[in-house]
From TrEMBL:
GO BP terms in the entry: cell division
Gene behind the chain: zapE
Protein name, UniProt field: Cell division protein ZapE
Protein source organism: Allokutzneria multivorans
Source domain of life: Bacteria
Key words, A-Z: ATP-binding, Cell cycle, Cell division, Nucleotide-binding
Amino acid sequence: MSAPRLVDRLPEVSTDELVAAMVPPPMFDSVSFDSYLPSPTEPSQATALERGRSFAERVVQAERAKSWWSSLFGVGKAEGGKPGLYLDGGFGVGKTHLLASIWHAAPEPKSYGTFVELTHLVGALGFGEAVRRLSEHKLLAIDEFELDDPGDTMLVTRLLAKLTDAGVHVAATSNTLPDKLGEGRFAADSFLREIQALSARFDVARVDGPDYRHRGLPEAPEPLTDEDLALRAKETEGATLDSFDELCGHLARLHPSRYGRLVDGVPLVLISGVRAAADQDVALRLVVFADRMYDRNIPIAVSGSPLSAMFTEEMLRGGYRKKYLRAISRLTALSRMANR
């Protein structure tokens, strides 16, 4: 009997499910400020931890003040200070851990998602409906904040302006300072006013340090043979086995908001014939796919080329470089899990 394949799955996700799914991924279900361990050699991490605690407390206090003010006068009272906290740093320094900790400490209702998931949500709901639903929340947490094209710049700027004006606090992580968003991807100078307006809504906390996923650990395992992949598929109940080219074609036919549902419940993903992505569109879909697998802590093993070879040298020098490097970092961590 052949192994199950991801390409045979056609997941459906309703708009209500998209909103309900705006929570931290399973691997960050139980994190907290207390479980974040700043490196003693990186003082910015301890500082970012305290900034995160203070911001979460400000969200709590703002809600208490609003409830008190509303009970007296029947209206909400605006909170002073910037409504956003922006955690800036490299890969694997614990920014997502801090972001999820802020989310867990904040009062309901609240929402959490990656930047890509947020733009997919707006696309699915429509701008007005997304504003209406998210304006009811106390906190919006956005992981891996990035602006890849002019449309996203305008969309996110408008969305966050509406939400923060409505009293929503916003916490975000990124590898790019807010006033540098979009550099190298499109004519950022043409949208400088929008980018500056966006950055003015955030206080910035820097988080320095090496990628914890690679501290003292070996490089990613060498690719397996096709025979080894087939054996792993037989040994692991529920493992999926797909060819790289067929999987890339399947991802192109699915809206990226479905990628998480595509791999839900899969204990091990096996991909044969890995090679360099054919073009930028394929590569960016693979980044989203890697993020959804990492969210769910799903091990991956491959044959063909190493996982790091999915993105060409030209891609790694281009405007989406940070996205590709993040995907390589995460896929390497997942491939180590499969090799245990």
